[in-house]
Amino acid sequence: MINILWAGMFLSAIFVAAYQLIFLQNYEIFSQITNAIFQNAQSAVEISIGLIGILSFWLGILKLIENAHIAEKISEKLTPLFRVLMKDVPANSPAISTVVLNMAANFLGLDNAATPMGLKAMEQLQEHNPSKDEASDAQILFMILNASSVTLIPITIFMYRAQMGATHPTDVFIPILLATSVSTLTGFILVAIRQKIDLTNRTLLKWLGGFVLLIVALTSFFLYLEPSLRLALSSALGNIILIFLLGAVVYIALRHKIKCYEVFVDGAKEGFSIALNILPYLLAMLVAIGVFRASGILDMIVDGIKFCCDKLNLDSGFADALPTAFMKPLSGSGARAMMIETMQTFGPDSFAAFASSVIQGSTETTFYVLTVYFGAINISKTRYALKYALLSDLAGILTAIGVAYLFYSK
Fold it and tell me: For residue 142, how many other CB atoms are within 10 A of its CB?
């Protein structure tokens, strides 16, 4: 599917560009597409280089976690759950603890920590994969949960809304939490049905119930706070937890008489090779996305939806937020730019800006996650991963639009 989609982006962009040149006399369109190719090719290199430092740091920390037997203890605690979720992964595999750490980082909105841990988890899961060029069931489940991961505290969205002058920057908190929860739940259920995971298993239901209770408790706590305090605490909470966890890892490693510096450096050495493996996959996807965006297809789709809504006498207010929805699975920076552009055009307190912010937080950047995670371990056959990830995105985005109408107040 990804091969067809990749080729389709190029061909549809060229077709639309030719239409604009011939019928609309847009003589700049092919120049814009060419510039997008060069810019996105450069961006792919910059992203890969930028990942080296982050990857190296967190791979060093993960090496400390492994040597201090922290990973082993986490695996022991979660073995019953992962026997249900990832039946092909051995109970004592270090992949279990790395998967958990990655999900915890995603949950707290710590992207810089989540990506290196996710790449390490994929590498460890690959050790149990009998077909090295094809994604295993465990890898697909992990990728889907990452591409639609629940983020408790969407700090960056709060900060952008505050910078743009929104009256209540954190009023998107509950809508985002609802939308991203639906996205994750949709992806999980789709994969569970496909992989024949027992959804009635008592262990699984216990963990899901605990997770839901945690979400409800934290949501209630944040709703109780004043808006200004909510923003300050949201910005600080994830980083406070992160620093204390780092301190705990180093302390436990010292107690085990581990040579922390040497072990950290040994783990960090892997960062460069992983970043290098990602580059070709990232380059291919970013260039295709750049061409697709520069062709003006997104604008044509939005205009078409507005036209249909007007003809059917339906509210078309959500259509102004759709550029963010269309860009979100393709490009994180592109979707962020669309969200900011929507705030600038319609005002930070407008419905379009509110809906755009909720959409931005409803799901992850699917193509980036798929490209980086599978590219790092040279997997070319992704099976049903992309299809289910996009269906999860669709569920999250539709929920985001729905809850935006439900929660928005002028």
Answer: 27
